[in-house]
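Recall the central idea of this unit: under ordinary conditions, the amino acid sequence of a chain determines the structure it adopts. In this exercise we apply that idea directly, starting from the sequence alone.
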Amino acid sequence: MLTVSKKAAAVLKAAKTAQGASPAAGVRIVKGAVPDDSGKPALAVGFTISEDPAPNDEQLEENGLRIFVEDALIEPLDGRTLDAREGDDGPELIFR
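Accordingly, the structure predicted from this sequence is:
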């Protein structure tokens, strides 16, 4: 199962507040694709604010934040930790 660090939860809570989402809303992690250096699609993830999970999403609550993981990402993210670090343009979310 995915875990979420306190730092990452704080970043996502701030984003949720900035979007004007309800306190009960969660963050949904969704699958995307971006081209890698060879032009082939590489796995990418995105984050959306959602009031409810999709039917096949895995649901968890970490550090007071509801998280919904798209079914296609449940296995790839199993055992990983979503964390945050300070980047050049502000906080960055990373998977460890």
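The radius of gyration is 13 Å.
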